[in-house]
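Figure S4 source data
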Amino acid sequence: MDMASIVIKGYFTVINFLVPTSMKCNFLGIFLGLPKRFLLLVIQVVASPADLVKVRMQADGRMASQGLQPRYSGPFDAFKKIVQAEGLKGLWKGVLPNVQRAFLVNMGELACYDHAKQLVIRSRIADDNVYAHTLASIMSGLAATSLSCPADVVKTRMMNQAAKEGKFLYVGSLDCLVKTVKVEGIQALWKGFFPTWARLGPWQFVFWVSYEKFRKIAGLSSF
C-alpha cells in the first residue's frame, strides 16, 4: 500500500468515526481529518535532502544553458559538495518551507476534494459519479496549487541560495518571505503557478477519478 492510500484511508476512517454525517461538509469536518497528515510531514523531512539536490541540479541546468559552469557533475557529487561546503545540516536547508508546502498540498488535495465533491452533489450539479469526481478533482488541484505556491517559492529560494562571503541572502523562511514580497511584490509568491497547476491538475484528475472507480469496483462506498 502506498503513502497516498494510507493517508486517504486514515482521513476516511477519522471522518467517519468522529464526524456526524451532518457535519462532514463543513470546515470542522475537514480539519478533524488533518492530524493524519503528519505522517507525510515526517517523510517529507527525511526526503528533504533529495529535494534539495534536485532543486540545485535544476538550477545547474539553467546555468549550463547560459554557458556557465555547473556546480555539480551529478547527484552524488552534489551531496558530497553540499556536505563539504555547508555541513551535514546543509542538506536540510529549506526543510521548513518544504514541510509547509507538503502540508498545504495535502490539505488542498484531500480536504478540498472531499468538500468540493459534497458541494457539487448537494448543489445538484451532478450525482456521485465521474462528473462530480472530475469537477471536484479540478477544484482540488486549484486549491492545492493556490495554497502551496508561496511555500514552494520560499522552499526553492532557500534551497538554491549559496553563501556569498560566508553570508546567505535569507536567514530563514520568514526572512525569505518578507524580502520576496518587499522586493518583488506579493504576486511573486505565486510565481510558477501555472506550471505547478499543470503538474498537480492532471495528477488530481487521474488519481481521484481512478480511486473512486476502484472503490466502486471493490464494492466500497464513495470517498
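Figure S5 source data
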Amino acid sequence: MDVAATLTAARTLSAALQCAELRKLCSIFNYEPQLQKLLDIVKTIENFLLDADVKCRELTNDDQYWVKNLKDVFYDADDLLDEFNTVAHQLKRMPGGKITKKSSQWRCA
C-alpha cells in the first residue's frame, strides 16, 4: 500500500501552497479564496490519508486505487506549482523587480 508516499506528496503540496510568494501572487490577482479552498481540500485529504495509514489493511481495492491516483495528482500539482514558482522568479527579475498585474503578460503552455 502506498499511503505513506501519498501522504508525503500531500504534505509537500500543502507546504508549497503555503509559500509566501504564492500567497503574494494570489493576493495580487485576487485568488486568495481559491488558494485557501485548495489548501483546505488538501488538508482534508491529508486527514483521510492519516486515517487510511492507520487502517491500511482495511482498505478495499477501490480505496487503494484512489490513494494511488491521489499520489499522482499531488505530484502533478506540485510540478505545476514548481513551474509557477519559476515564472514568479522570472517576473521578479523584470525591471523594477515587482510582480504586478501588468507583468502578467505571460501565458501558460
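The helical segments are 3-17, 20-28, 32-54, 61-92. The two ends are 34 Å apart (CA to CA).
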